[in-house]
From TrEMBL:
UniProt binding sites for NAD(+): D37, G94, K95, A96, L97, D98, T116, V117, A118, S119, S125, Y131
Entry EC number(s): 1.1.1.6
Biochemical pathway: Polyol metabolism; glycerol fermentation; glycerone phosphate from glycerol (oxidative route): step 1/2
Protein name per UniProt: Glycerol dehydrogenase
Domain Alcohol dehydrogenase iron-type/glycerol dehydrogenase GldA: 8-154
EC category name: oxidoreductase
Amino acid sequence: MLKIFGAPGRYIQGAGALDALGGYAALFGRRAALVIDRYVQGVLGPRIEALCGAHGVALTALPVEGDITPESIAALRAQAAAAGIDMVIAVGGGKALDAGKAVAKAAHCHLVTVPTVASNDAPTSKNYVLYDAHHNLLAVEHMLFNPTIVLVDTAVIATAPAAFFRAGLGDAISKKFEAEQCARNGGRNMYDGVPPLTAQLIADGCLRTLLADGADALAVAGSGQPTPAFERVVEAMILMSGLGFESGGLSIAHALTRGLPKIAGLASAPHGLQVAVGLLVQLDLEARQDGMLATLTQWYEQVGLPTTLAALGAAAPSDAELARAAELTLAARHAANFDRPLDIKTLVDALRRHA
């Protein structure tokens, strides 16, 4: 097997980065599909249209609402095809970016992602998630390549509520430990290759940055005023976390996101908060002796991340619910990236310890 590392073509971050959108878009053509969260369209739509228009790029707006289903994607793809687009510009949270990836894949064109929240590391990755009409995960699909441009305006992201930022912390904090398990146990990354050392080092840096600056960054989330700590943590949550998981691989913490939504009260829990609890379960199963579980639990309390299923929203999960969650988790590809094979009882017992 070959080592494979993947990444976006270019990553641009900073307050006011959105102002560069038109110039970058003009590199790829004159007609763009603007796949945009409907709420964000009302806030940033006119500004984006003006920025692109100043560089001769016309936009066809494709607003996104609700879950990304096969039906909604088919409709967006049809509208984009009718517009004869040269590129896709995806703006918003994870769902809008996922929709943009699905449209860009079908159109075989360049993709520019513009996240407006830092709730996950979707902006840099080639992955996108499809759901059914009942919010059940159907599939994780992949573009052939990562986004061409990732444009992260920290002044925009700093206006988003702190709850989104906290979810981003939860999603990112796991990557060092998941990449570690994947590499140690012969797992494959998102490119179906051997994780390179580079990915692990990036994931290690992500962890160090979050532990050092996460609380200070969270303190200014929602203020609209990014600080140096905020800039560092946004880079960790979007770029380092994205590269760390895609090229480094995943393990139990993310596999649990397949099972946890089946527990009453957790179906609508944000992905990042599910991952945060999943990481504590993973570290419990690792039986680490380095004090990291205690360190992370203290940091979780500092930044307001849940440490139990109850804090995540599950009042009193039944044995049947936990068994079903464990079954779905162990069926996920990433669950095999672990020091030893796990069975349902072992995982249920670990979940109980974090109930």
